[in-house]
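[INFO] parsing input record for Cytochrome C
[DEBUG] input buffer:
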Amino acid sequence: MQKWIMSGLFFAACAFAVILMFTLPGKEQVAEQNNPTMPVVQLDSAKAEATAQKAQCITCHGDQLQGGVGPSLQNIGSEHDAEEIFSIVAKGSGQMPSFKEKLAPEEIANIAMWLSEKK
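[DEBUG] output buffer:
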């Protein structure tokens, strides 16, 4: 009887290990999540500003990017380059939420390039 119980537990543990092996993300996926790659886009300032309003960035950063709940973004380009801004917007940072599920990578890249020009 005890052998049957031990065999059953062993089988269940093996099945669980196989399931985890196929469902857990690989090293490449984890690396991509930690450091999203910024796609190459042509800067379109009007579209970036419209996307920022659509994503409601002005709720926290103000209608003139002067700050409020979130920090001022009027001179963000002197602190961060476009890739750093892309990473912050995509992943989120501190109280800022991630926008990778709300905006396309190209939209985030356009906003990042637009903000990096603000010096």
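[INFO] Residues 2-23 form the longest helix (22 residues).
[INFO] shutting down worker
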